[in-house]
């Protein structure tokens, strides 16, 4: 019992130490600095080193950081959390991220605020290169070729043009009915 | 309302009889009480099916047996089945027309009608399969050329349009007969008058319609083949066991023509009996179609053997599991029923001289259609139920909603057919007449110019006709 009480007291002191004695509503500003390789390869993990400090330059420990990048799914682009890490006593954390797309990715490292610290964020950008040997899901081979060369549209449009020509023939049949000439075969019934 | 027979017709009595018989179904009061009861019954089944579908729209696909594992069931089976029998019109009408098969003439109209009606019913089954039919618009708003679904929409809509044209063109001279014979009331007379395109049978009109039919006969064949190839690719372009096949295109096309010919035989037999067309649709037509049915059936059996033998030899994990369920497991009753009813028994009936009678040929055709529906069922469902990850097999049990919509589909097929024959002649009168004339060498006696004869024959040099129309100035 005494041990439990001691733990609770220590916890209270610790939370006061992290949160400081800042009055509620006046949170301490934080600053995030990011360091990372700006060029990476698709699928290869990249480490984003992050440091969080307060206005006095003191490290902020225990801050939960999130790496957010835009991700496209079914034609819609949404923000996706791709990594999480908590800062250590030195206010540092490493977010590991393996980009799934190719091209420039502009992400955000965000601290949503806690323990009396205000939220802050920093941007991070990567140029993601195509790997030398990659498995590409879509579109390759015939899938890409069909779409590019309009292999489907050309025959379909050709057939529809033929239909229009046949319809034009029916118009001519009707017009020919205006100039009635005697037939050697079946006459009008 | 007496039909004037063309002066110099090959056989006045025969011609008159043909005109009377072809017009009989479209005469007022031609149906009688039994016909009306039939239409009322079919309409009732269709309405019940529509109500079931509305229920499904209201409560979602949860009221069907479809689930996250088996998302294609009866509806897709019906879709493949109806698209399959739609090949009837293409084969009998276009291919036989192009190959100058004279015996085709009395049955072309029925075949062309089967195509159009089966396509309409088949396409509607896809709508039934969609939990949210309003989302069909996305196929057109956001078309994705790599998707077999889009290929399907394009090819089927192209086929429906082409089949309607191909049905309509040979109808024009017959519509003129109905127009000039004052058949029906004012509305129908107006309809015949508009659709008959002021047809009076002059040389220029004959030349133009011959050319139009010739072009359509050439175009519709590849379109029809592409339709069922694309339908097969909906399955074949996936990596699922049972569908991952390179021969699915021709396999489906042959199966479609197989079931299509069987459908023609059944429909022919019904209309022959109901409308007393025995004089025009003779045993010869049944025997010729029976030969075609047997050949196509053997070809289909060969494809089936080839498909399962290659898969069964390699026995990859998924395929082995699928084959086991098909041959000895839960789907074995369907598979073996298809094998027996759809192939073995019909082959025996069609091959033996003793059973090559109308009755047994029609029996074989009915069995083929039942068997081919089951075959489509065992193509669609087991591959969906087969787990892609190490889970239990999926299950599919159709509910009353799917049974109702399926019944409505078949009833709609019959209803549209019956109503169509109530308005339009079931036999292509002018084509039959033309056949008689050709038979008896009437053209030569009448001093018909070879040029006229060539332009009138709808299939004479259709490729040349197609080329000419492109070069010709509109008159």
Notes on the structure:
The complex is a heterodimer of chains A (189) and B (475). By secondary structure, chain A is α+β, with helices and mostly antiparallel strands. Chain A is 28% helix and 33% strand. Chain A is built from three helices and eight strands. A five-stranded mixed β-sheet of chain A has the order 2-8-7-4-5, with no helix packed on it. Chain A has a three-stranded antiparallel β-sheet with strand order 1-3-6, with no helix packed on it. Residues 7-23 and 182-189 of chain A have low confidence and may be disordered. Chain B is mainly α and 475 residues long. Chain B has one domain (12-284, 388-471). Chain B has helices at 12-23, 32-59, 74-85, 87-98, 108-129, 137-141, 148-168, 172-180, 186-195, 203-236, 248-274, 283-314, 317-327, 332-351, 358-385, 400-423, 429-440, 442-446, 450-456, 462-471. Classes of the chains: A alpha+beta (189), B mainly alpha (475). The interface between A and B is large, with 38 and 56 residues.
Secondary-structure blueprint of this entry?
The complex is a heterodimer of chains A (189) and B (475).
Chain A: H1 2-19, E1 31-36, E2 39-41, E3 46-53, E4 64-73, E5 76-86, E6 92-97, E7 103-111, E8 120-129, H2 141-148, H3 153-178
Parallel strand pairs in A: 2-8
Antiparallel strand pairs in A: 1-3, 3-6, 4-5, 4-7, 7-8
Chain B: H1 12-23, H2 32-59, H3 74-85, H4 87-98, H5 108-129, H6 137-141, H7 148-168, H8 172-180, H9 186-195, H10 203-236, H11 248-274, H12 283-314, H13 317-327, H14 332-351, H15 358-385, H16 400-423, H17 429-440, H18 442-446, H19 450-456, H20 462-471
Structural class of chain B: mainly alpha
Largest interface, with counts of residues having CB < 8 Å to the other chain, equals: A-B, 38 and 56 residues
Largest sheet of chain A: 5 strands, mixed
Average pLDDT of chain B: 85
Structural class of chain A: alpha+beta
Query: How many E-type strands of chain A?
Result: 8
User: How many separate domains of chain B?
Assistant: 1
Architecture of the largest domain in chain A in CATH? Sandwich
Oligomer: heterodimer
User: DSSP helix count of chain B?
Assistant: 20
Provide the gyration radius of chain A in Å.
34 Å
Distance between the termini of chain B: 35 Å
- Major beta-sheet overview of chain B: none
Q: What portion of residues of chain B is helical?
A: over 70%
The CATH topology annotation of the largest domain in chain A reads as Immunoglobulin-like
Helicity of chain A, as a percent range:
25-40%
């Amino acid at each position: 019992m005494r041990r439990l009480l001691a733990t609770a007291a220590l916890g209270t002191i610790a939370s006061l130490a992290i949160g400081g004695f800042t009055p509620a509503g006046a949170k301490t500003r934080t600053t995030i600095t990011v360091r990372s390789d700006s060029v990476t390869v698709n699928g290869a993990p990249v480490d984003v080193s992050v440091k969080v400090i307060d206005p006095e330059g003191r490290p902020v420990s225990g801050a939960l950081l999130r790496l957010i990048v835009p991700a496209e799914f079914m034609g819609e682009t949404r923000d996706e959390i791709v990594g999480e890490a908590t800062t250590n006593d030195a206010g540092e954390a490493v977010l590991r991220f393996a980009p799934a797309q190719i091209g420039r990715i502009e992400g955000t490292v965000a601290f949503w605020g806690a323990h009396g610290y205000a939220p802050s964020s920093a941007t991070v950008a990567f140029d993601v290169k195509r790997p030398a040997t990659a498995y590409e899901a879509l579109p390759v081979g015939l899938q890409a070729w069909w779409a590019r060369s309009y292999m489907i549209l050309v025959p379909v449009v050709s057939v529809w043009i033929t239909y229009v020509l046949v319809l034009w023939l029916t118009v001519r049949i009707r017009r020919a009915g205006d100039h009635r000439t005697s037939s050697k075969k079946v006459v009008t019934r | 309302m007496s039909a004037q027979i063309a002066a110099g017709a090959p056989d006045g009595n025969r011609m008159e009889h043909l005109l009377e018989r072809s017009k009989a179904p479209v005469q007022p009061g031609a149906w009688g009480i039994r016909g009306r009861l039939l239409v009322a019954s079919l309409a009732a089944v269709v309405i019940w099916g529509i109500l079931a579908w509305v229920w499904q729209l209201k409560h979602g696909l949860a009221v069907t047996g479809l689930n996250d594992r088996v998302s294609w069931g009866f509806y897709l089976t019906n879709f493949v089945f109806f698209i399959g029998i739609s090949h009837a019109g293409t084969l009998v009408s276009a291919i036989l027309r192009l190959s100058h098969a004279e015996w085709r003439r009395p049955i072309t109209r029925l075949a062309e009608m089967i195509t159009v009606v089966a396509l309409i019913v088949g396409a509607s089954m896809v709508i039934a399969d969609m939990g949210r039919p309003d989302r069909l618009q996305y196929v057109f708003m956001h078309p994705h050329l790599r998707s077999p679904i889009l290929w399907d929409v394009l090819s089927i809509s192209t086929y429906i349009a082409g089949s309607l044209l191909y049905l309509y063109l040979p109808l024009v001279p017959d519509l003129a007969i109905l127009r000039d014979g004052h058949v029906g009331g004012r509305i129908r007379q107006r309809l015949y008058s508009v659709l008959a395109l002021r047809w009076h049978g002059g040389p220029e009109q004959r030349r133009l319609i011959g050319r139009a039919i010739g072009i359509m006969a050439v175009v519709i064949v590849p379109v029809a083949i592409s339709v069922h190839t694309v339908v097969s690719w909906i399955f074949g372009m996936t990596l699922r066991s049972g569908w991952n096949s390179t021969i699915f295109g021709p396999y489906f096309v042959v199966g479609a023509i197989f079931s299509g010919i069987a459908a023609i035989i059944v429909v022919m037999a019904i209309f022959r009996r109901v409308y007393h067309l025995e004089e025009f649709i003779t045993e010869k037509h049944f025997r010729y179609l029976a030969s075609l049915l047997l050949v196509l059936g053997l070809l289909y059996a060969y494809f089936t053997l080839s498909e399962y033998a290659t898969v069964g030899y390699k026995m990859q994990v998924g395929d082995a599991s699928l084959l086991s369920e098909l041959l000895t497991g839960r789907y074995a009753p369907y598979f073996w029923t298809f094998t027996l009813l759809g192939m073995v028994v019909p082959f025996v009936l069609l091959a033996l001289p003793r059973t090559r009678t109308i009755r047994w040929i029609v029996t074989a055709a009915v069995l083929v259609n039942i068997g081919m529906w089951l075959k489509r069922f065992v193509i669609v469902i087991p591959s969906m139920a087969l787990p892609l990850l190490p889970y239990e097999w999926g299950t599919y049990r159709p509910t009353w909603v799917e049974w109702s919509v399926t019944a409505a589909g078949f009833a709609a097929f019959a209803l549209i057919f019956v109503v169509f024959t109530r308005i339009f002649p079931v036999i292509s009168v002018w084509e039959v007449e033309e056949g008689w004339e050709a038979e008896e060498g009437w053209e030569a006696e009448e001093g018909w110019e070879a040029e006229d004869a060539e332009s009138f024959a709808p299939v004479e040099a259709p490729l040349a006709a197609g080329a000419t129309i492109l070069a010709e100035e509109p008159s």
